[in-house]
Amino acid sequence: MSGFIPIGRELQNHWLRRDKDYWMVFCEMYFLARYSDKPEIRTIDGLEVTIHHKEFIFGRPGWSRRLDISEQRLKTLIKKLIDEGFIKQTQRHSKFTVYSFEYEPEIIQNSNQQNNQHSNQQNFSEQPAGTQAGQGISGTINQQNFSEQPAQQPAEQPMKEEGIKEEGIKEECLTDKTHKGAVDKMASKSKVEKSREGKSEYAESVWLKPEEHEKLLNEFGQEGLTWMLDVLSSYKLSVDKFYASDYAVFKRGGWLRLKYEEHLSKNKQKSGGYKNRSQQANEDFDDLKQLYANEVNKGADNINAGSDRIVGENQKGISRLHKSN
User: What is the value of pTM for the model shown?
Assistant: First the structure.
């Protein structure tokens, strides 16, 4: 492929250009849109798809990974581009969608309009003269009425000016929103950096203080802690989640701890060793009773042994008295 793609100056202050991620995706769509008028058949996941002029294939997960943009932002951008007529959906499949890239710079649009107007005027001027001459005065009146009609371009001009004013107001609102979004993004970045102070990354996107990690290791062991770290890392990466403290979800009442306890319960059920609370309470009570009985028996044995010793001593004393008498 060679050549160039036109971009109009009307996008200079557009919301699309002010967001670097959105602008990168927009340019990617522009570059990938099929430039040839001849359709192309592509096979994607075993499915034959026909791609026509200006069309491109879009899959949110793949584009998210390739361009390093969250899927939620891509979803928002696609909706806005469709609403403003930059793209339109032409095919929809289970794993991807085909869009047509509809954007054209204003200079090309105006050029097409002028060409159409010039073509219409030329067709009118090329009509046979006899058609008007044969009408006599009536033809003159028609010509006069036609000449008194306002030109098409001046009639459209006020509408265009009004559109520009509305666009200016809309653009001003978007400027405020963009500025606010940039401030929020900076604040969010500052919070993330602050939340990681004095911490180490024990799993991807999971940050803990060394003493926090040591407590968890002592409580859950290496196997249990590794399981919980993997679950938390997978969740945070999949939904682009931020926690001020990752340690909090490990504590009692945190969702990760509850999920780990549920995981242990399922494993016990599979191994046949699971007991409900009532069963566990009964077993604990039986153990206490057995312990108490053992202690009582030990006490009774000690008492019996003491009694035997006392009886024995008494008998020995009596025997000595008889011998002395």
Answer: 0.37
